[in-house]
């Protein structure tokens, strides 16, 4: 383990690159096809199943708690019923097949088999050695899964571990900041880096009425302007949230060290850009409108 100083935001930058590649499978037609073979066809059921499967056949309450920003009624419409159609172990196998075909399609066979992919997998897995299970249910559940043998799948697995580790810690910070799931979405969207309201309504189960009520609460707290922009206080709160999330997520990147983090970020950014160029994400996914 290195004791060299690490840029406070280096872990966040590295996570962002890794998370971008992890998230490609959520928007991949390969995922819907693989889950469809199992009989899971509703897009929300697919989403809940593939992300929650590592937890086992849990109920709606556990999924709502772990995912944080989905409306519980939407979760309960699909969970736990989805496990009767496709048990978690079959969902995980289908997810692995979908990730394989998705990465091969987006990155190309040459990139998948390149030595840089194996290098990135090794670095990301080394960083994940320092992740903590405490109060991190999604990370801990995924940490129980075996590491795939193929480098591109091992890289995706490690990226998933690091993504869920940071995500679990982030939820604790949001709770500490007094933001419920929808308020967290509204303020993130207001930064211009979160999902547009269109995608929030389509994927999280919230209505325009729910959104407007959350906006009203945030205005009362002095976090949002009348036009929906963050106030100075709102901007400061979002940055405080990210900084505290950085602090809770430092261990993996301290363990990897500055040089390793820089190299993993470089490799991860190249993979993420290739996926983006290949059309991995909807054009209207992020932004304020």
UniProtKB/TrEMBL annotation:
Organism: Streptomyces cellulosae
Domain of life where this protein originates: Bacteria
A Pfam family that the UniProt record links to this protein: HTH_67
Name of the protein described by the UniProt record: SalK
UniProt xrefs under NCBIfam families: SCO6745_fam_HTH
InterPro entries named in the record: HTH_67
